Structure formats: structure tokens, C-alpha cells
Amino acid sequence: MVPTAVWDQEEGVPLVDVASRQTEAPVSVAQERLWFLEQIAPDSPVNNCCAGVRIAGPLDQTTLDRSYRELFQRHACLRSVFSTARGRLSQNIFPLVNAPPLAWDELEGVEHLDSKIRHMAEEAARHPFDLTQGPLLRGNCLRLADQSYALLLSAPSIIADRDSLRILVEDLAALYMAFASGGSALAHGSPFEYSDFLRWQRDWLQSRQPETHLAYWQERLDGAAFGLELPADRPRPAIKTYQGASHYFSISARLRDTLEDFGRYCWRPSSRCFTTIPGRKILSSACPWHSVHSGSLSG
Questions:
Q1: What are φ and ψ of residue 249, in 5° steps?
Q2: How far apart are CA 84 and CA 247, in angstroms?
Q3: CB 137 within 8 A of CB 78
Q4: Which of 175-179, 193-197, 289-293 holds the top average pLDDT?
Q5: Distance (Å, rounded) from C-alpha 247 to C-alpha 188?
């Protein structure tokens, strides 16, 4: 028997209640923030994410198309669209959907193939999504040569992030293997969906607990600067343009291991290079205030 509800013993509210699941679902606080940013800069690609994977070996187009369509049935967020009513944002989840087809492009024989793939991946990430219409996942399979392919997936951050796309790629591979061997769609690993968590989160936010958390963060962030006032050769623009750039460089494996060991020693076992002390030290010394209020820093 599949449970219809799970209770949080400490908070005293049901974690999820799948029996009350509806086609209209609430949104998370993070989704409200991303929607707000979308209204400020509509059609901006800044909040899109894209994943790519290379495939080597024989690939059946019909089976991959079927596997791609099945993703929409397995993941409710891919069948979601967003709308506002009376100033309140909500997402509508369609129980069944005619999934958009997986796009296919032939690149065999194209010169500068790696540059072409990179360009198509960038274009996929820049192409805006209509959050009110959907679909909110786009897929493109590139045939590079005989038994050589590249798969591109892109989605808006309001429904997915890079880890989510990684899960989609893993699901797609598992579905392809199941269909290719003559099997049926895989059983869902959990009876719960993200919308179930969102309904629990809303119930929790209406309880007395958030006041304690809000007071804690108000105290912690009291006096914090609104931005990183780093020394620069020009003033910060009044409106963000997102016209940044990237600088790539390599470090030795030995230095990488040393930095990760240093981070784990100073902070936590799961620390990685990009959250290690050197970055914080550089920012702290460059800023007119000593405490860097940031969840993660990458440079």
C-alpha cells in the first residue's frame, strides 16, 4: 500500500498528502523569486540551464523519441505552466500532455564540429521559454557521425537546475534501455512529487515556525551590504546587463587536491574547490567590510 501522507513529528504538520493533489499547485519561494525576475526582464536567458551529453554507439531514433516523451509523463514539473490570478502565482500541472518531439540535427561532415556543438548548446541555453505556455523542456539530438551523437537539454530554472537535468539524463538513459530491450516504462521510484513538498512548505510557512527563522536571519544579516563593492575600473550599471565574461585556467591535480583538503579541514567534509577559503579571503580583503554574506562563491 502506498501511503497518502507522511507526518513531520517535530513540526506537527503532514509532510505530504498525495490524496489532496490537484492540477493547480502552489509555488515555492524560490519560484516566486524567479517569476519576479522574469517579469522584470522578460525573455532573458539568464535563468535558463542547459545540459549536454555525448553518446557513443548505435542509437535508435524511434526508441529515444519514445523515451523523451515518457519523461514528460514521469516528471510533473515538465507538464507545468505558470500563471497569476488576483496577484497570486500558481502552477498548473496537466495530468496528460502531448509531449513535444525531440529535435534532431545532422552534423556529420560539418567542419569545426566541436565549435558547432558549443555554439548550438549556447543558443539552446539562450533561447527563452514562455512560462505561461510551455513546454518547459527542450531537447535536441545531434548526429555527429556514425554511432556518435550529442544530446542537449535545456529548461528554465523555475522548474529545474543542473542537478535536475542530470537526473533527467539518467532517467532518459534508463527508459531507453528498458524500451530497447522490449520492456515497458519504468515504475516511479517515489509516489511523491515536488508539488507535494510545495503544499507542505506552504502549510509550514503558515505555522508559527517561520517567525523564529525570520528573526534569526534578520539578526544575522543586520548591517550586511546589499552587494559586493569590489574595486572596479568602472561604476556598477544601474540596470544589469549580464554582459560578463569567463576566464579559464588550469591547475595541477596536486593543487586541486590540496585546496579540497584545505576546504574540508576548515569548513565541512563536502567542501569543494569553489567554496574553499582562498576565494573568501580574496573577497574579504577586497571589500570594505570583513564578513562575506554569501551562500557560495565562485570565481
A1: -150, 165
A2: 40
A3: yes
A4: 175-179
A5: 42
**Grid cell in block for residue 104:** 534532431
Which residue intervals of 75-208 are DSSP H helices?
113-126, 162-180, 194-205
CB 133 within 8 A of CB 62: no
**Residue 44, all three cell numbers:** 532573458
Please provide the average confidence, as pLDDT, over all residues in the chain. Answer: 78
Pairing verdict, β 88-93 and 13-17: unpaired
Q: What is the pLDDT of residue 208?
A: 62
Q: State the number of CA atoms in the 13 A half-sphere of 171 facing the CB.
A: 22
3-state DSSP call for residue 216?
A: helix
Give CA 198 to chain center in angstroms: 16
Q: Determine whether 124 is exposed, middle or buried from the number of CB atoms within 10 Å of its CB (0-12, 13-18, 19+).
A: buried
Residue 135: cis peptide before it, omega within 30 degrees of 0: yes
pTM as predicted: 0.71
Rounded average pLDDT over 48-77: 91
The Cα-based distances of 254 to 131, 248, 257, 263 in angstroms read: 45, 18, 5, 14
- 22-192: which CATH number, 3.20.20.70, 3.40.50.1400, 3.30.559.10, 3.90.45.10? 3.30.559.10
Where are the chain's structural domains? Answer: 22-192, 252-299
What CA–CA distances, in Å, run from 79 to 6, 71, 189? 25, 10, 19
**Per-residue pLDDT for 62 more than 90?**
yes
At a CB cut-off of 8 Å and minimum separation 6, what does 178 contact?
184, 185, 186
In this predicted structure, the answer to whether residue 5 has a pLDDT above a threshold of 50 is no
78 contacts 135 by C-beta, under 8 angstroms: yes
Q: Is 278 helix (H, G, I), strand (E, B) or coil?
A: helix
Concatenated DSSP letters of 236-262? PPSS-------------HHHHHHHHHH
